[in-house]
Structure formats: C-alpha cells, structure tokens
Amino acid sequence: MNKKFKYPYVITVPGYIEASLGIQVVHRLCHLINQNGGEAYVVSPVTNPEWNTPQLTSGKFNEYKESGEIFIAVYPEIESGNPLEAPVCVRYMLNREGVLNGNSINAGEDDLFFFYRKEFAENEENVNLLTISTYDLSVFCDDVTEKDLDLLYLNRVPRSCVDFSTLPENIIVLSMEQPLSLNELAKVLKRGRVMYSYEASGTCALAGLCGCPVVARVASGYEKYAITEKTSEDIGNADVAWDDSPNELERVRESLYKYKDFYEGLESVSNQQFFKFLELTQDKAQDCYNRNHKENIMEWVKRRELSPE
C-alpha cells in the first residue's frame, strides 16, 4: 500500500440505495480511499457494483483482530459505540447526533469527528468538514421549460402531521414508500413548479439544481428535521422559500443558479477535505501504533527485569 495509506479503513454503512444521499456518501468515501491507493472495506449488505467498495470478509476481519494490526473504523452518526472494537474510531456526522435514529453515538475521548455540513457540528468552531458530493450535474440540471408539477417531499415526517388543505391540489408526494431511481427523480424534479419540504434533505438540493424552488415548512413535534437558515448557508447560501407567496417564490427562482455554482465548485473543496481526512486519520493510527509499540517494549523490559538470571 502507498506509504500515506499505511493503515486500512473499515466502514460500517447500510446497504447501498439511490434513495439515500447519506448512504451514498459513505459508500463513496470507501470508493475514494481505494481509488487513491488506500485499502478500505465496507461492512454492508449491498454495494454499488460501479464503485470500488469491497465488502469486509470475516476472514479479513479476523486477520486484523488476531494480528493486532491497527485499522481505522469509520462510523456514521447512526452507529453507537465501537462495535468493531477498532483501535482508531472516526465519527462521520452526516446529521446531528440522535436526529435520525434517536441514538447516542457514545464516542470515545480520542475519537476523530468529521462533519458533512457545519450545521451538524452545532456551535463548535474549527471543525473538520468532509462534504463528499455524489450528484451528477448532467442528470440534475434545469433543462426542462415546462413546470407543471407541485411536489411534497416526505421521509421522516409522517403524513398525519401534514395539513394537506394548505397545499396545492393534486400534489405529488415523493417518499421512501415509493422510492425513485436517480434518473426517475430528476425527471420529476425538472417538472416541479415548487417542492414543499418539512425536513432538510439532499432531495431539496437536487430540486434546486433542477430549477424547482423549495418551500420550507415545519411540522409540530418534528422541528429537529426542519430546514433552517444554517442549512442554506452550508450549501453556498442557496435560497429556499419560507412561504409560498408569489413574491417569495419568484425571489427564490431568481437565485436557483447558486445551487449549480456551489456544486460545481465543491469538487476542489471536497478533494482538499478528503486528503485532510486521510492525513488526520493516518496520523491518528500511527500515534496508536507508536503508543502500543512503546507499551510492548516497556512490558518486555519489565519482564526481563523480573526474570531470574
């Protein structure tokens, strides 16, 4: 392995699915490590056959455990504790702690944290960001002139919390109940006059890329999912509408170009963040190795001192 990738990565993540941006991002991280000369595996039941994301075998994992080899576990924020008993733990925060699964991550004192968006770091300063984009801007683009659909995005907010009387008639609901492929989703979003959403989601950014303004709403009891001004700031100040008045929607339509500008410029920023991620995690693993090596030497010396001549 390349010297800058001395230590391997094991990444836990649900099975690959096009309907989940967060899952795609974590799988993509594994792919990027391998494509850049590293060694990374996913603990996942389903992978993307087009990406370099080998599944961790029990044989390879036992090899790590039995040899005492240093490896780096990467856990998304939906994972609690250190189930792999890894010497080095990385927390990849693709949302705020506990928002999606209601779990506490139970991080160790030495765990490294990386955040997909600064918003997820709450009020912390000088955080490590790792914003990996999986968007295909040739697919998600505004190339349809006829906008004839009103949309509602629902995922974690139940239908029972939505007052449909305040929404346009014949609104089309986009949800995980009937997931669309990325190509199918793009075709729908390109025809969107407006998309209402009670939660911050990558689908909102995709709507903006397709020329469909997003109206942010808040559901009682589900405020933690809602789009905030901070959400907008983290994607290049790309605007959302705070109501569906004609003036507000027109204001947002005039600024939809910001979505494309942000994601076109994201690649270089993301590359810098990715290589920073590699540097910090490999350094952490090297420190762990040095500490263990020192402890082994001290134990050997102690045994020598206690053994009879």
Q: What can you tell me about this protein's structure?
A:
- By secondary structure, the chain is α/β, with parallel strands linked by helices.
- Helices cover 34% and strands 13% of the residues.
- Strand 1, helix 1 and strand 2 form a beta-alpha-beta unit.
Question: Can you give me a brief rundown of this structure?
Answer:
The chain is of the alpha/beta class. It is 34% helix and 13% strand.
Task: Compile the SSE list and pairings.
Layout: E1 9-12, H1 21-35, E2 40-43, H2 58-67, E3 72-76, E4 88-93, E5 112-115, E6 149-153, E7 172-174, H3 182-190, E8 192-197, H4 202-209, E9 214-216, H5 229-233, H6 246-253, H7 257-306
Parallel strand pairs: 1-2, 1-3, 3-4, 4-5, 6-7, 6-8, 8-9
Shape from CA axes?
elongated
What portion of residues belong to β-strands? Answer: 5-15%
Number of helices: 7
Mean pLDDT: 91
Distance between the termini: 43 Å
Tell me roughly what share of residues is in helical segments: 25-40%
- The radius of gyration is 23 Å
Q: What is the element string, with H for helices and E for strands?
A: EHEHEEEEEHEHEHHH
Strand order of the largest sheet: 2-1-3-4-5
Q: What is the number of beta strands?
A: 9
Question: What would you call the structural class?
Answer: alpha/beta
- Uncertain regions spanning at least 5 consecutive residues: none
Please give the largest β-sheet.
Answer: 5 strands, parallel
Summary tags:
309 residues; alpha/beta; 5-stranded parallel beta sheet; 4-stranded parallel beta sheet; 9 strands; elongated
